Every structure is written in C-alpha cells, then in structure tokens.
Amino acid sequence: MSQSSPPSSPVSIEPANNEDAEAIAQLFSDAFAPDPVWSAIVPGERSRRRVVKAAFKSEIRAGGHRHIDIIRTESGTILGALNYMPPEGTAPIKTLPARVFERVAATLTPSGRRGRTHDEAVQSRRPAQPHWYFRDIVTASEARGKGIGSALLKNRLAIVDEDPIPVFLESTTEGSKRLYERYGFEHIETLTAVPGGTVFIMVRPALRTTVE
C-alpha cells in the first residue's frame, strides 16, 4: 500500500469533548456504514447507521470521550477519531436503564445477538497481560487518503511507547490490516464469529519503534 500524504490543511490532534458527541457519533456512523463486519451484524444500511450513531453517542456521553483522540481542522471540523482503552481503563459508566436496554436488545433482536456474539469472541482474544486496546479508528470520507489515520496512530503509539506494553485491535478490511502492519501490528488470528463478519486479530508487541 502506498504511503498516505499528510493532511493538506492545518489540523490538530486533541482529546474529544463531551460536546463533540453528536459530530463524533455521526463520523462513526458514516465510516462504518460500508464496514463488512457491521454489515454482517446489522444488514440494513439505514438501521446500521442509526444503531452505530446511537451506540457511540450514548457511550461518548457516558464518559467515553475521555478515551477518544480526534483530528480537528482550524474551522472545527472533525476529520478522524481513534477510540481506545488504556491498560487501566474501564468501560464508560452508563445508567441502569441504558444497561438494561442494551442487554435486552442484545438478547432479543437478531442484530443484537450477532453483535454480542461477535464482541464476546473478539474480547476473548485480548491479551491476558496489561495492554492498550485500539477499539476503532475512522476517517471522514472527504479526508481519506490524506494521512489522517496514520497521524492518529502515530500520536497515540508515541504515548504507548513512553511505557511500552502491547496494543490489541481488530481489523475489518485488508486495507486497514496493511496500515496497521506498517505500524508494527502482527496478524495473529483470523476470526469469523458471525457469518460474513471476518476480522483480523492483531497485536503490536511492546518496544516497537513507530514508523515515521
């Protein structure tokens, strides 16, 4: 894969804010609409967009913004986001009704059951030792091929390498798999927990040097 060119206009990488919830959730919804794994979990695109946006908005507003890096233009437009979990991190705390609703939905709806099956399979592959988990990396459609994903990766990996431990992620396409391999991630398993929802389980060992 050819190397992406750097962003053509001034941008900054910064932590997300709770006020960014709507924009970030929309970014994830747009980015995951064509994603093969999300397509296998929620087959209808309209439903998929709605489910992804609602899920991310709920998580961000519950405190998930603390674990999201974003790239923002000078005008305030968000061009990309990296959603991660640090080694000492915990899931955002949601209200009891929200947790009950999610559990019921994951049990009673076909999409919910597929999503839960996939998530449980991926979670079972996470390393036993302390590690970072890069959950999602997305780029706005108008910014693809401009180095946004690479910039987000280099920024967070530089922080990881200050106290090196492994990084875990799952890749849903061959293109993203090649990108992650450039940054030291190793493909350790191909997993299909849901028909059509194949992912590449990848781990970046500690003490790797980031790519310039």
Give an account of the 3D structure.
By secondary structure, the chain is α+β, with helices and mostly antiparallel strands. It has one domain (11-87, 96-204): Aminopeptidase (3-Layer(aba) Sandwich), CATH 3.40.630.30. It has 7 helices and 7 strands; from the N terminus they run E-H-H-H-E-E-H-H-E-H-E-H-E-E. It has a 7-stranded mixed sheet with strand order 1-2-3-4-5-7-6, with helices on both faces. Helix 1 (21-32) runs antiparallel to helix 3 (45-61). The longest helix has 17 residues, at 45-61. The radius of gyration is 17 Å and the shape is globular. Residues 1-5 have low confidence and may be disordered.
CATH fold assignment: Aminopeptidase
| Content of β-strand | 15-25%
Q: Spell the H/E element sequence.
A: EHHHEEHHEHEHEE
Number of helices: 7
* Largest beta-sheet details: 7 strands, mixed
Q: Considering the protein shown, what is the CATH homologous superfamily?
A: Gcn5-related N-acetyltransferase (GNAT)
Overall geometric form: globular
Task: Give the helix proportion (percent range).
Answer: 25-40%
Category from helices, strands and their pairing = alpha+beta
Q: Give a count of the beta strands, DSSP E runs of length 2 or more.
A: 7
Low-confidence stretches: 1-5
Number of domains: 1
Query: What is the rounded distance between the termini?
Result: 15 Å
**Mean pLDDT figure:** 87
CATH architecture: 3-Layer(aba) Sandwich
CATH class group = Alpha Beta
Radius of gyration: 17 Å
Strand order of the largest sheet: 1-2-3-4-5-7-6
